[in-house]
Amino acid sequence: MPRHYVMCPPRHFAVDYAINPWMDPTxxxxxxxxxxxxxxxxxxxxxxxxxxxxVEPQPGLPDxxxxxxxxxxxxxxVLGAKFATRERAAEAEHFRRWFLEHGFQDVTMPxxxxxxxxxFAWTGRLLLAGTGFRTDPRAHAEAQEILGVPVISLRLVxxxxxxxxxxxxxxxxxxDEQPAQIxxxxxxxxxGSQRVLRRLFPDAVLAxxxxxxxxxxxxxxxxxxxxxxxxATALAEKxxxxxxxxxxVDISELRKAGGGPKCCTMEIRK
Length: 270
Description:
amino acid binding, dimethylargininase activity, L-arginine/glycine Amidinotransferase, Chain A, three-stranded mixed β-sheet, DDAH-like, alpha/beta, 6 helices, single chain, N-dimethylarginine dimethylaminohydrolase
């Protein structure tokens, strides 16, 4: 099925501060290369038949390119974001306005800190919800109340994988005929959360450390194609063995800020 994505061009992309272990302001950043990589990601979605809408980037918000962190949309209901860091706090209001300007009527801004699809992954029946570094665990109950879907809490324990979407992605959503299928990196999660994932998804694709380190789990799947970083070769082989088609993109410049394909991509589910 065609997907509907929201993205934000990295027109003001920079690494001027460090709010995650991947960011180093002393390492040079090439904004033009970041824009080329982002454009290729956007165009890849369109070549695959998906709709992409764009939010206007704002000066002084270099991480606004990571649109996934600014909203969670399930069945047309929108739960906005409340960022954990002051550097990104202003992004939430720009995305709230975008939703309202584009006809979304059920838009709720959270009371608790949540970084949207950075820590929320919809499986078709359950919302997997990460915590440990950014999203407050109280936001999980808030998401359940606002979105009206069951929420499963998962604790992240490795600061390199500070968002759920750096350690797990949904390969295919559940439907009437089959359960959801996911891929994840076990060592990013607490022992208890690993047990929960094994119980819920016994047939999951398990990534190794090398694929996690190149942001291979920060992938986007439309149920057939899996868009992932060019370096994630072992993970690509594993998803191909399950019948999916890997599609490689270069996100090396964007990764300097701790982002990859999924970070750049918010999905609209109506």
